[in-house]
Amino acid sequence: MTARRSEAGPPGSHPRHALAPLLNSPVRLSVAAALASVEKAEFALVRDLVEVTDSVLSKQVAALESAGWVAVAKGRAGRRPRTWLSLTAEGRVVYERHLAALRAIAEGAGGRWAGPGRGTADEGTGG
Predict the structure, then answer these.
(1) What is the C-alpha separation between 103 and 116, in angstroms, rounded?
(2) What pLDDT does residue 75 have?
(3) Helical spans, DSSP H, in 23-107
């Protein structure tokens, strides 16, 4: 078993360690995915894309905003109040790292993973 551990890399090198726990929620991950390809999106559009109620989206966006990953801007379109959502620069980095870790896990990379900003476990820098 010890030989197996050394082949897999040092403890902490598994890609799951790069997952962002806040994005483990399917709704929060879906919100980040919806915002990743656009500069900003109207609250109602994201609500419809993610298929949740206003209150559910509002609660999940508040959690992402508290983490600094989503920016919320309020304004008006004509006479109607509007809310726009966007990923912050940090939010984009966290989302991309989370996706890379999920891909590495799905591909069975285990300790051989070299995610964003990390060396490979073989180089002794994964930790």
Answers:
(1) 12
(2) 94
(3) 26-36, 43-50, 54-66, 89-106
